[in-house]
Amino acid sequence: MNSRIIQTVPEKGIYWQEETKEVKFEGDCMHSVELYPDLQEQTMRGFGGAFTEASAHTWSGLTNEGKEEVIKAYFGEEGLCYNLGRIHVHSCDFALGNYTYVKEGDETLASFSIAHDEAEILPMLRKAIEEAAKRNEQMQFLTSPWSPPAYMKTNGDMNHGGRLKKECYELWAKYYVKFLLAYKEAGVDIRFLTIQNEQEATQTWDSCEYNPWEEAEFIRDYLSKELKAAGLDYIEILVWDHNKEGMYRRTKEALVAIGQDKDLIGGVAVHWYTGDHFDAIRAVRKAFPDKAVFFTEGCVEFSRFSPSDEVHMAEMYAHDMIGNFGAGVEAFFDWNLLLDEKGGPNHVGNFCAAPMMLEGDKATKRLSYYYIGQISRYVRPGARMMLTSCYCKDLEVVGFVNPDGEKVVVLLNPTDKELPAAIRHNEGGQGVYHVLAPHSIATVCFAD
Question: Which of 24, 53, 127, 285 is the most buried (most CB within 10 A)?
Answer without folding.
Answer: 53
